[in-house]
């Protein structure tokens, strides 16, 4: 099963399962932050998506990629008592590169 790092759940089609990164709640200056976590790590991906012309395209992220999420959206999924989120491949804003 290509693109699978999480054994108990395999996203279908262009779905991407992510685990949000821990939020930085206090700045170096000691200011408390309240905000949504927009960074995440990909833990499982579906196999493909359809292009505008109906052609099959591979999902653009892979397991262990660090990605930037939109502020809103995603579907919460609880697996092994941990919160994960499903996003469509096209809804992910970008990925971090080294």
TrEMBL record:
A GO cellular-component term linked to this record: mitochondrial matrix
SMART domains in the record: Cpn10
Keyword Cytoplasm among UniProt keywords: no
One Gene Ontology MF term: protein-folding chaperone binding
Key word Chaperone present: yes
Keyword terms of this UniProt record: Chaperone
InterPro entries in the record: Chaperonin_GroES (IPR020818), Chaperonin_GroES_sf (IPR037124), GroES-like_sf (IPR011032)
Domain of life: Eukaryota
Summary of subunit composition and partner proteins: Homoheptamer arranged in a ring structure. 2 heptameric Hsp10 rings interact with a Hsp60 tetradecamer in the structure of a back-to-back double heptameric ring to form the symmetrical football complex.
Family designation: Belongs to the GroES chaperonin family.
Summary of the function given for this chain in its UniProt record: Co-chaperonin implicated in mitochondrial protein import and macromolecular assembly. Together with Hsp60, facilitates the correct folding of imported proteins. May also prevent misfolding and promote the refolding and proper assembly of unfolded polypeptides generated under stress conditions in the mitochondrial matrix. The functional units of these chaperonins consist of heptameric rings of the large subunit Hsp60, which function as a back-to-back double ring.
Protein name stated in the entry: 10 kDa heat shock protein, mitochondrial
Native organism: Pan paniscus (Pygmy chimpanzee)
Lineage: Eukaryota, Metazoa, Chordata, Craniata, Vertebrata
């Amino acid at each position: 099963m290509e693109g699978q790092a999480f054994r108990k759940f395999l996203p279908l089609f262009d779905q991407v399962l992510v685990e949000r990164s821990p939020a930085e709640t206090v700045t170096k200056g000691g200011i408390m932050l309240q905000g949504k976590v927009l960074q995440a790590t990909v833990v499982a991906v579906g196999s493909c998506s359809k292009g505008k012309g109906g052609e099959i395209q591979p999902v653009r992220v892979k397991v262990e990629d660090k990605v930037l999420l939109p502020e809103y959206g995603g579907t919460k999924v609880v697996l092994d008592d941990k919160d994960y989120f499903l996003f469509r491949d096209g809804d992910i804003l970008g990925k971090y590169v080294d």
